[in-house]
Design a protein that fits this description.
By secondary structure, this protein is an alpha+beta fold. 34% of the residues lie in helices and 30% in strands. The longest helix is centred in the first third of the chain and has 18 residues. 37% of the residues are buried. It binds zinc ion.
């Protein structure tokens, strides 16, 4: 079963784990832009990582993982939003992502793809909550290593992440030592060593149940029902209008005078929006949100 997030728990050892396997949702991201292979690799890994990180959220917010650099890939964004339905204690997850790059992107370590970069993780609790943002210099050989390092420093929780991408499949696993309890260092070491025997091929291809059995069949563990992950973009005409409002009346009128209409596309889902003279008047006339003229090409 693909496009799921599966949580598991080693209660005795006080260690939690998660497994994410994406296919349809990842394909939906790939269909919208023609990314070169080394960019796809990073974007797939980032989407899986964002989903792994979102699993501890208990509210309908979002977690965004961003990498900014001065190298061939200048920006990578992956976000995951838990979607709790009334009465359900486990959410479904919505993901989206995009990347900007210039020229030839080499394969290789993080530095060769991103140059000097930063990893930015933003947790937005939604509806009036306070946004939290953490920024660290991008370091390590892989995105998984960079995120492990970030988590260990920011949450003080030993964490290990494994990520794999091949073609239209992307997958990952996370193991984290929980605070408190009377867990032993030895348990954490043993479980991470077992998890570390996973191969990228197994992560991508084995069904979740089988994979966890293969790694941890001698360990006392609890498995939770897999949660659905799907592609979804929450862009809207109102958000684009708000961005235009932020640019200021003069600049927007100049753009309009030049081209006759204003066109904008969502970088995540490629949805096109356009605004004509009347729409622009409305944007600046009052605090009412403009309606109509949505168009999908
Ligand atoms: Zn969109």
């Amino acid at each position: 079963m693909k496009d799921t997030l599966q949580r598991f728990l080693f209660e005795e050892a006080n260690v939690r784990g998660e497994l994410v396997q994406l296919e349809e949702s990842w394909r939906a991201v790939l269909e919208r832009h023609d990314y070169p292979e080394p960019v796809r690799q990073m974007l797939g890994e980032a989407l899986v990582a964002a989903t792994l990180l979102a699993a501890t959220m208990k509210f309908n917010g979002s977690i965004t993982l961003q990498v900014r650099g001065d190298g061939p890939i200048s920006l990578l964004v992956a976000d995951c939003s838990p979607d709790f339905q009334p009465g359900e204690d486990q959410p479904a997850y919505q993901i989206r992502g995009m990347a900007s790059w210039q020229g030839e992107v080499p394969k290789g370590d993080l530095a060769s793809r991103f140059g000097t970069g930063h990893l930015v993780i933003t947790i937005d609790p939604g509806k009036g909550g306070k946004r939290y943002q953490g920024v660290v210099a991008l370091a390590g050989e892989s995105l998984a290593e960079a995120i492990d390092d970030y988590l260990e420093r920011s949450e003080q929780l030993p964490t290990r992440m494994w990520l794999a991408v091949a073609g239209e499949q992307a997958a990952g696993m996370l193991l984290q030592r929980l605070p408190g309890g009377d867990s032993e260092e030895e348990d954490w070491q043993r479980l991470s060593a077992l998890a570390g025997t996973i191969t990228g091929q197994e992560l991508l291809a084995l069904p979740g149940e089988q994979l966890l059995h293969r790694l941890f069949h001698e360990e006392d563990r609890r498995q939770f029902a897999p949660q659905q992950v799907s592609f979804s973009c929450h862009c809207s005409r109102e958000r684009i209008a708000a961005a235009l409002r932020g640019m200021g009346r003069e600049e927007v009128k100049d753009m309009l005078a030049e081209k006759g209409k204003i066109e904008a596309s969502c970088q995540f889902c490629n949805q096109h929006y356009h605004f004509d003279v009347v729409d622009v008047e409305q944007i600046f006339a009052a605090e009412i949100s403009p309606q109509g003229s949505d168009r999908r090409h």
